[in-house]
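Contributing new complexes? Match this layout with manganese (II) ion.
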Amino acid sequence: MFDRTSRSSCEEQQSLRNYVGSLPTEDIIRISDPIDIDHVPTALVLELESRRRTPVVLIDRPIGFETPIVTNLFASRDRIARMVGAEPGGFNEVWAKALANLLPARIVDHGAVQEVVRIGAEVDAATLPISRHFEKDAGRYIGSGILVCKDPDTGTRNLSYQRLQLKGPNKFGASLHSRGHIWEHLQRCEARGRNLEVAIVIGVHPAINIAAAAKVAMEIDEFEIAGALLGQPIELVKCKTIDVEVPAQAEIVIEGEILAGEHEDEGPYGEYTGYSTFRSTKNVFVVKAITHRATPIFHDIIPGYSMEHLLLGRAAKEAHTFMRLKEMVPGLKALNFPKSGTHFHAYMSFKKTAEGQVRHALMLLLGLDSYLKLVVAVDEDVNVFNEEEVLWALATRFQADTDMFMVPDVFCNRLDPSSRDGMSAKLALDATAPLNSDAERATVPPEAAAWARSFLDRH
Ligand code: MN
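Output block (do not edit by hand):
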């Protein structure tokens, strides 16, 4: 069972269990009755979301499995900020600081993740509580696994997420379809007729999950970002069967290889766009060993168009895009990739000091992220995290004949079902008021607003 009472030793600071143990009770929903893990946890998280609730979900007794599950960790923007030691709203700053102060990982001799080691014929991945999430999914999928591999030329580690379809006791189908660094590594291994060694890490301190979701330069080992975020080097142990290192305090590690030149059908799978997709690089991952703690916890991330999937995917992306845009546009105040846009829309606010600045900023933003297809600029008095306010700015500060531009046929993300041949039209809307505008917002005095807030905090 999931024990939240017996921890807090300093050597557990990089563990999932220590993090979950630190959460306030009101931030957790715990299910102690046995439940079916096919579709039910996904349905629960989606229903919580429709009720605007974001608790972490603990499942003590998944029917048919011995390992408890934790999910929905990343459903709240404020919780994500606190995971990296930031105040709500302070994530971007902490991220920028971490990137400027990378902290290399430290190799240690022993790790709790190797309390139990199963190798070769002893391996059965099907005993892990891997859920079926959406109705059309091809099977049981791991979406929370951090794939750790090494650049075959430089040895630099890479962390990323790739969907993994359980296909047998020692086999998964994988899609490397973002064509990120792991895909690059595999290309170079295949050219030499070699498999790519990969460790799949499940259940770590969520700061490591956040770093693993970042798209940073190939030269950067994402464990160094995680170390900087946590303010201590991430402790790694060597895997038992491959030349890869993994977090010593992880819950579960699956060691194995992506096979060179082997392809098999994989998918469909419910993707972040909200659609079930067959697009896949159709790779094959073969398990060599599974190691885990004596009583592990399985971490699941509800995939598809769920708040946690989208927020985890873009926490680092928003911060990274914000930093780069801010270098060119000093008046930038805030940037939001709203959930409704999956990863295709962004809203930014800033203080403009000259006409024409907005168009410059809109062009930059579209260029910084190839997934984007709609960008909207608003003044600093508009909260970009409140879509109603953004739409209000469009209603009152925007005219379609003068305040927008469109760029046709630009490279985009192919998972957008409306894209054509990997290309999309990019639309930019300027919903800022002209500098000489005499339209004034109807507001209440700040003292009155403060009184109202404190009155309602008490009633
Ligand atoms: Mn990388």
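Reviewers usually confirm one structural detail per submission. For this one: The domain at 329-431 is CATH 3.40.1670.10 (UbiD C-terminal domain-like).
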